[in-house]
Amino acid sequence: MIVVMEKGATEEQIESVIEKLVGLEFNIHRSTGAVHTVLGAVGPAELVDPEEFKVMDGVKECHRIMAPYQLAGRAFKPEGTVVRMESARAGAVEIGGNAVVVIAGPGSIESEEQIMRSAELVARAGARLFRAGGLRPHLSPQRNQELSEDSLKLLRRAADTFGLLLAGEATDDAQVPLVAQYADLLVAGSRNMQNYPLLRALGSSPRPVLLKRGHSATLEELLVSADCVMAGGNHNVVVCERGIRSFETSTKNTLDVTAIPVVHKLSHLPVLADPSHAAGRRDMVIPMARAAVAAGADGLMIDVHPDPDRALCEGAQSLKPEQFTDLMAQLATIAAAVGRSC
Ligand code: PEP
Ligand code: MN
Question: Whose CA is nearest to atom 10 of ligand 1?
Fold first, then answer.
């Protein structure tokens, strides 16, 4: 249930609504906005008559929300969530604000030189966050890379050297504290969208979370998973459309561009698109990146490699340095056309 308090509702009025909800065994998540305080109440909504709350002093609206997610629902934070990260070297970056934010980097860690060159080239072209996949199982076991503190240190150093923030994937709950020591944004990969122990660990982390849509997950399921993270108290969640499995076989996956406006309608959370894992081939990544920004994506996650034809992992979907630079220039024009910056 969602209770929206009147503009100017007193603290006493808010407290008495909370007290009544707690007495009915709801868990309360309070969001104090510039105008309205909104109370998200998770509990036995089906047993409670919203009219009982609507008549209380200081209450503007009370809705029984039928969607299976509540905290991630648009009604919980109508003004939208802006996820803010900052480091001394990169300054502040906001996802969900006016600027379209680009996260970029190679599909895996191959060498120190490859990581440093990758970070340098994506930073020069205008990316704000660095990523290097591969710290998780890949299709072929020889390409698996175990998470190690040394690799996180290398990624952090690369990000800091070139004024980038770092996105880092945790593939299970036990990894979350270590990845959180080094990364500014914790990524839950597509295959882990419904890994509930991982989602709970992310929910109690102080770091923002990027939750990638499962290959075969509906948007409702994606938002239920986002809710699960948020229920732990971490409301800094960004979701990412990364292509879904469809009957079409000419690309690795099918980028569901429609997911971008749909999630914006259903949820207050920022939405990114990952055209690289969707298209699976670099010639298709470029038009899909353009389409995602035109559709209102709050940012992109893009695979870029200094020499993709020699990449050890996901070279086909990795842009060449000059392609990425050109794309960033095009995205600035597209972003401006839809009232954003890039
Ligand atoms: C990745 O980001 O490298 C990755 C494997 O993405 P996904 O989880 O979307 O497949
Ligand atoms: Mn990858």
Answer: 190
